[in-house]
Amino acid sequence: MPVLAPPPSTEKDTVSVQFAVCAVRHLPPEARVRVLHAAGIQPELLEQPRVRVPGEAFSALWLGVAREMNDEFFGLDARRMKVGSFSVLAHSLLACGTLERALRQLLRGFAVLLDDVNAELSCDGEHACITLHNRITDAQDRRFAEETLLVMIHGLMCWLVGRRIALTHATFAGPQPEHSAEYALLFCNALSFDTPHTRVFFNAEALPAPVVQTLASLRTFLQNAPQSVFLKYKNEQSWTAKLRRKLRTHQGSQDWPTLEDMAQAFHMAPNTLRRRLEAEGESYQSLKDHLRRDLAIHHLCSSPLGVAEIGALLGFQEPSAFYRAFKRWCGVQPGAYRAQQRLQQARPSGQNVADSPQNLR
Questions:
Q1: Which CATH architecture fits 239-346?
Q2: Do the Cβ atoms of 116 and 71 come closer than 8 Å?
Q3: What are the transmembrane regions (predicted)?
Q4: If DSSP codes are grouped into helix, strand and coil, which group holds residue 174?
Q5: How many CB atoms lie within 10 A of CB 79?
Q6: What percent of the chain has pLDDT over 70?
Q7: 90 Cβ neighbours under 8 A, 6+ residues apart
């Protein structure tokens, strides 16, 4: 875990601990403890389903699992997706010209790399659809394979054209999982479960968009992988990113700005700002809640501030309000979360994550 606070512009994302649970599921016990420790994730947190972990910690965990198994797909498929496969696949997309050609090339590549799960692209008028075909029998593995493949595909799609492509709807063949709220962050708000097929839909107008990335930008993308793939694509010029940056400057204020305040700051009508956020699959309230949650986790893990001070910094007028909000976000009290993280940091250090090979690069 970092010791010093990051610069104000740094984005601090978190993910559900359920992804960490699934990520280490096929590791032997000793290897599981080893990669969790290297990633800075206390094993006991895996027993608390509502806990969240920093995005960089899950990124380090993904790399650690890939290193242990020589498999960038967590041992979910009968055929290993050997270390380096993602990098080779990403390189093959640069010369495709348009998003549609790159996407079809990407899906063909996954069909070669994996035996049990693959995807196909189809178009119906103004709607484009990616349908998954999944032959994995274990329910937990089946769900995690779909989550992982979809975020890989969507992350690469967005990066290729240099902007976030909003998903309009997503359907899942399995039942609604306990961490389904995470799907609104990863995919979109319009979700259906227990459907005949797992599919994600987006506007077909995106398909002719040109591939804007180069070999130089690919190197940067891979240097930040898998965090650049798993977490929501960050277009620094998007309205979501602009508002996150603006909101971060309000740390320490008792009253965080309303949508109307932010619209005025950007010299536009509130409805215009609302529509622009909706086009990016976001709402102002969820953006504000997610930012405060992620900042709370960052300060609990990386700063000497007391819990009440952190709550005040994030605009909670009463410590009890911050305690309730954090318990709702993460399933544990902020003090308990901090104590668990400090216990993990106090343990004898194993392999330094910084020294680990960057398997997805």
A1: Orthogonal Bundle (1.10)
A2: no
A3: none
A4: coil
A5: 12
A6: 88
A7: 156, 218, 221, 222
